[in-house]
Amino acid sequence: MESLHELLRDPLYWIGAVTVAWLLLCTLCFLFNGIRVWIVGNGNLVRASRLGKWAVVTGATDGIGKAYAEELARRGFAIVLISRTQEKLDEVSKAIESKFNVETKTISADFGCTDIYPKIESGLAGLEIGVLVNNVGVSYSYPEFFLSVPNIDSFINDMININITSVCQMTRLVLPRMVDRSKGVILNIASASGMYPVPLLALYSSSKAFVDFFSRGLDTEYKSKGIIIQSVLPFYVTTKLSKIRRATIDIPTPERYVKAQLSTVGLQTQSNGYLPHAIMGWVTTALLPTKVLTKYVTKVCLSQRARYLKKQKQG
Ligand SMILES: NC(=O)c1ccc[n+]([C@@H]2O[C@H](COP(=O)([O-])OP(=O)(O)OC[C@H]3O[C@@H](n4cnc5c(N)ncnc54)[C@H](OP(=O)(O)O)[C@@H]3O)[C@@H](O)[C@H]2O)c1
Q: Which InterPro entries match (predicted)?
């Protein structure tokens, strides 16, 4: 009894007890949040009946964009597909109309150019847009030192126009009517490469960091007006851009990725979109020291570069 009283009078005992209670509380919150996002999810929010008739997807003819167009059509949205190649747009729009029995509209535009927005604006005029997916994006054909990137001058313009300007301009065109209707969802597809600097993909990585910051800032500005703006940060997904064909648990197909991602809308302002990616995001940002992470990422990119250049040499 005497020793218990002594223990309770010891400040170290209370520091320890408060620390353990705090860690327990943090763990419980972490688990509760994980269950809410990854097990329960918010699968019913993104529906045409709740948000409005049309969904607009940029870069909609391939990969992740095509998977968004299909999944949103399955959820009852009429789809505006925007991409560069009209034949591919026609093919995808026909397939979506016949499979999901929804209206579609196509707009061909090269997001590498900056004079396309009046054309897109008139294509979208009068539509009740519930969802905008700013998906279009390009990356390096292989990791490279900045000054050695082939055609660096046009590469810089293309990457900034496609990855950054498109997100700002499409948001400028679509957001005002969402604000008038006090509802709407904008999904900005950034990348896990935007969560920390990726040497040898510096321009891509920083363009995606812009998309992430822009989304999070805007979400705070327009949340009170009923608009959700989410920053989506995938790791690898099997698409042309990633040049990965075989899906694994940590590299999903675009369809699997998009299904999982849509369940996180309204629950996370910034999301890796898919549970294994969220775990990878947590390990790389919360557990690994920045120096270790940068060293590892640089090593991976250098070895990808060496492999690519060797293949090129072999012809
Ligand atoms: N795949 C991944 O592992 C991964 C990981 C993280 C983030 N992301 C991001 O996810 C987004 C989609 O990537 P993805 O892998 O699905 O790419 P993808 O398979 O290469 O598809 C890109 C789409 O964008 C269109 N597009 C490309 N350049 C265009 C341009 N200048 N103007 C208009 N449309 C253009 C393409 O249409 P056309 O064929 O007609 O040009 C195609 O529909 C990108 O923002 C990317 O950065 C991807």
A: NAD(P)-bd_dom_sf, SDR_fam, VLCFA-Steroid_DH
**Cβ atoms within 10 A of the Cβ of 248, count?**
10
Atom in ligand 1 nearest the alpha carbon of residue 158: 31
Check pocket membership of 178 for ligand 1, CB cut-off 6 A. Answer: no
Using most ligand atoms within 8 A of CB, pick from 107, 241, 243 the residue to mutate for ligand 1.
241
**The CATH number of the domain where 190 resides is what?**
3.40.50.720
Q: Is 240 in the pocket of ligand 1 (CB under 6 A)?
A: yes
pLDDT tens for each residue of 241-287? 999 999 999 999 999 999 999 999 999 999 999 999 999 999 999 99
Does the active-site annotation cover 204? yes
How many independent structural domains does the chain possess?
A: 1
Do 127 and 104 form a contact (C-beta atoms < 8 A)? no
- The CA dihedral of 209, 212, 216, 219, to the nearest 10 degrees, is 140
Among residues 199, 62, 79, 190, the alpha carbon closest in space to that of 130 is found at: 79
**Catalytic option among 68, 140, 142, 204:** 204
